[in-house]
Design a protein that fits this description.
Elements lengths: L6 E5 L4 H6 L9 E5 L5 E4 L19 H6 L7 H6 L5 E2 L8 E4 L2 E5 L16 E5 L3 E7 L2 H9 L24 H15 L3 E3 L2 H9 L27
Parallel strand pairs: 1-9
Antiparallel strand pairs: 1-2, 2-8, 3-7, 4-5, 5-8, 6-7
Length: 233
């Protein structure tokens, strides 16, 4: 049974290169929101067949349509308890949209023979999520961030560097800025928001994959914005 205890917020940080591998492909400094629903997290260095990443079940249409159609407001106790994997919800008009992620496990880090990997990505270790959690479906947008600054919850208004604001992912955000944003979300919704751990972020962005990149083991042009790309990428 799900019971939303805390809402999480993810920001790109020290391992930006590895985030490109696992699908977090956007400008440096982009922020993605994730919501935790009582996560049990365990790590160990074991290896073997049990380390295969788990895949989410196929989404159902049961109460998902009801949750998506509801007015954006904090979930009621009954709504909390009825959440299932792949359900969507929003807790305020300017809050990020969340999707419930199933429990599971994955092998975090790079293998010894992974091309392009670095020592700080090793040793690989098994991470187990024993409780279901929810994640933001999209990166935090400028609209969502600007709502925070308009409400005096965020003191910094980042530049869009002429890429455009609105629904574009917010960029040029520092760690302290992200902390202000999650604190504002906590005050607005009455629920505790926090920044995601690296393990939580990688689990979500891997989405059941075990390859070096989310599309495979080789770097391909046009798959990501990266210094490794040539001018024709």
């Amino acid at each position: 049974m799900c019971n939303i205890k805390s809402l999480c917020f993810a920001a790109y940080g020290a391992h930006r290169f590895r985030m490109v591998r696992f699908g977090a492909i956007s400008a440096i400094g982009t922020i993605a929101v994730l919501t935790l629903v009582q996560v049990g997290l365990a790590e160990n260095g074991q290896s073997g067949p049990s380390a295969q990443p788990s895949l989410p079940p196929a989404p159902g249409t049961r109460d998902s349509l009801l949750l998506e159609a509801r007015f954006p407001q904090p979930l009621s106790h009954n709504e909390n308890n009825s959440l299932r994997p792949m359900d969507h919800f929003k807790e305020c008009e300017s809050c990020p949209e969340m999707i419930v992620v199933p429990l599971g496990q994955f092998r975090m880090g790079a293998s010894e023979n992974e091309v392009g990997s670095t020592p700080d990505e090793r040793p690989q270790h098994l991470v187990i999520f024993a409780k279901t959690f929810a994640a933001g479906r999209f990166a935090v947008t400028f609209d969502e961030w600007d709502a925070c600054t308009a409400a005096k919850g965020c003191s910094y208004r980042p530049s869009d560097q002429n890429w455009g604001r609105g629904k574009q992912p917010v960029i040029n955000i520092r760690w302290d800025d992200a902390k202000e944003y999650v604190a504002w979300l906590s005050r607005k919704t009455g629920r505790p928001y926090r920044l995601l751990s690296e393990a939580e972020r990688e689990y979500v962005t891997r989405a059941g994959t075990s390859t070096a990149y989310w599309w495979g083991d080789d770097f391909r042009a046009r798959q990501a914005n990266s210094p490794s790309c040539s001018i024709n990428c």
